[in-house]
């Protein structure tokens, strides 16, 4: 069911500093910062030959990244994103197998302009999983 790894998301306390680190120290191709108000995050994507790194910063008081950074002040891996061909079929298959879909269970439009869903980390070895329709 899951396809290629789309990205690894890393929550960071200082998005500008993280962007500069990946650009200047690691020599990565780094995007501009983009606000994602519907998700309460600011994003930067680092393009790699085989996938992407998504750097996540806080946007607003209700940002899910703020709570993550309270528990992990230095930041850290927030989630893994896998591509799926049909997000609704994937959701239904996962639910039938007992996996919990976060939120209302309906796909939202993600940072790449495609439908996404998040799966409960307790159902996936302690890892928050994002599914993105390819």
Describe this entry's structure for a reader.
The protein is an alpha+beta fold. The protein has one domain (5-133): 2,3-Dihydroxybiphenyl 1,2-Dioxygenase, domain 1 (Roll). Helices cover 22% and strands 36% of the residues. The protein has 3 helices and 9 strands. It has helices spanning 15-25, 64-71, 87-96, and strands at 5-11, 29-30, 34-36, 41-47, 52-58, 76-84, 108-109, 115-119, 128-133. The model has no long low-confidence stretch (mean pLDDT 97).
DSSP helix fraction = 10-25%
The CATH topology is given as: 2,3-Dihydroxybiphenyl 1,2-Dioxygenase, domain 1
Strand proportion, as a percent range, falls in 35-45%
Q: What best-fitting shape do the alpha-carbon axes yield? A: globular
Please supply descriptive tags for the structure shown above.
134 residues, alpha+beta, 2,3-Dihydroxybiphenyl 1,2-Dioxygenase, domain 1, nine-stranded mixed sheet, 3 helices, globular
Secondary-structure blueprint:
Elements: E1 5-11, H1 15-25, E2 29-30, E3 34-36, E4 41-47, E5 52-58, H2 64-71, E6 76-84, H3 87-96, E7 108-109, E8 115-119, E9 128-133
Parallel strand pairs: 1-5, 6-9
Antiparallel strand pairs: 1-6, 2-4, 3-4, 4-5, 7-8, 8-9
Briefly characterize the structure.
By secondary structure, the protein is α+β, with helices and mostly antiparallel strands. Helices cover 22% and strands 36% of the residues.
């Amino acid at each position: 069911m899951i396809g290629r790894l789309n990205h690894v998301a890393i929550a960071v306390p200082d998005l500008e500093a993280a962007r500069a680190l990946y650009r200047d120290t690691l020599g990565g191709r780094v995007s501009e910062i983009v606000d994602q108000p519907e998700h309460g995050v600011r994003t930067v994507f680092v393009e790699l030959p085989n996938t992407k790194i998504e750097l996540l910063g806080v946007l607003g008081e209700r940002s899910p990244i703020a709570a993550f950074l309270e528990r992990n002040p230095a930041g850290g891996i927030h989630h893994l994103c896998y591509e799926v061909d049909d997000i609704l079929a994937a959701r239904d298959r996962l639910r039938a197998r007992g996996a919990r879909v976060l939120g209302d269970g309906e796909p939202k439009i993600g940072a790449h302009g495609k439908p996404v869903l998040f799966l409960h980390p307790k159902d996936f070895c302690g890892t928050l999983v994002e599914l993105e329709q390819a």
